Amino acid sequence: MSMTDFCHFLELLGYEARSLALKYFRSSLEVVTKSDETPVTIADRKIEERLRQMIASRFPSHTVVGEEAGGTISSGISWIIDPIDGTKSFVCGVPLFGTLVAVLRDRRPLLGMIEMPALHERWIGRGGYTTHNGEPCSVSQCKRLADARLCATDHRMFSGGGLDAFELLSQAVRITRFGTDSYGYALLASGHVDLVVEAELKIHDVMALIPVIEGAGGIVTTWAGGPITDDFGGNILAASSAELHADAMRMLMER
């Protein structure tokens, strides 16, 4: 199956996730708190269930790993699903939630999709190429921290020295915005944001983001500059340029 065929299938998954998410968005939902203290709704479960069905029907030999039903990444082709990234936004009626789907080959991200159902926006990244609603997109040319726009989901995801380092970085940039979840990474891929720095993330939170940002010309690593693997430790630094990445990484590691 070609990369183009995979991308077409990701589009189908995106439309299905959008339809299901909007069915439940801003409706009366029961919110359950999971053992890790994060919320989950019927929308999370229904979206993951449906996407799993679609993938299994088309690719019965592929492995599927999801936030809600779990699974284990294989050495062949694996699909990683986060049915609703930003469930807190979802249950509060805030439209900045998304569905993330990644395709991994031998445990490394090959393709990724960021679907924003309520905004009717979709980013798909594949080797050296990213589209936003079907049109090519690219990161900004920002190279200086003093000019940079920084996003993170919540300052409470940082702790100890990590919080101190983030606050120093936040003081060094031009603008800092919170509450973006995966949308911050999508905005980086389209050139509207220059840096995203986060912590305590899990594999389903990040794998889809990597092809999207790298395909748009950006850089995604751990805070220490290492690759994002299935045991990456939770810290992520995404930047629009090598210069910006190096300066941000230096500040984060000098904590």
Put the structure in a nutshell.
With 255 residues, the chain is of the alpha+beta class. It is built from eight helices and 14 strands.
Structural summary, described in words:
This protein is an alpha+beta fold. It has 2 domains: 3-136, 2-Layer Sandwich (Fructose-1,6-Bisphosphatase, Chain A, domain 1), CATH 3.30.540.10; 145-253, D-Maltodextrin-Binding Protein, domain 2. Helix content is 34%, strand content 25%. The protein is built from 8 helices and 14 strands. It has helices spanning 3-24, 42-58, 87-91, 160-172, 183-189, 203-206, 209-215, 242-253, and strands at residues 32-33, 39-40, 63-66, 77-85, 98-105, 108-116, 121-126, 129-132, 135-136, 149-152, 175-178, 195-198, 219-221, 236-239. Strands 3-4-5-6-7-8-9 form a 7-stranded mixed β-sheet, sandwiched between helices. Strand 6 and strand 7 (121-126) form a beta hairpin. Helix 4 (160-172) packs across helix 8 and helix 5 runs parallel beside helix 7 (209-215). The N and C termini lie far apart (46 Å). The mean pLDDT is 94.
Key attributes of the depicted protein:
alpha+beta; 5-stranded mixed beta sheet; Fructose-1,6-Bisphosphatase, Chain A, domain 1; 255 residues; 8 helices; 34% helix; 2 domains
Topology, pairings included?
Elements: H1 3-24, E1 32-33, E2 39-40, H2 42-58, E3 63-66, E4 77-85, H3 87-91, E5 98-105, E6 108-116, E7 121-126, E8 129-132, E9 135-136, E10 149-152, H4 160-172, E11 175-178, H5 183-189, E12 195-198, H6 203-206, H7 209-215, E13 219-221, E14 236-239, H8 242-253
Parallel strand pairs: 3-4, 10-11, 10-12
Antiparallel strand pairs: 1-2, 4-5, 5-6, 6-7, 7-8, 8-9, 12-14, 13-14
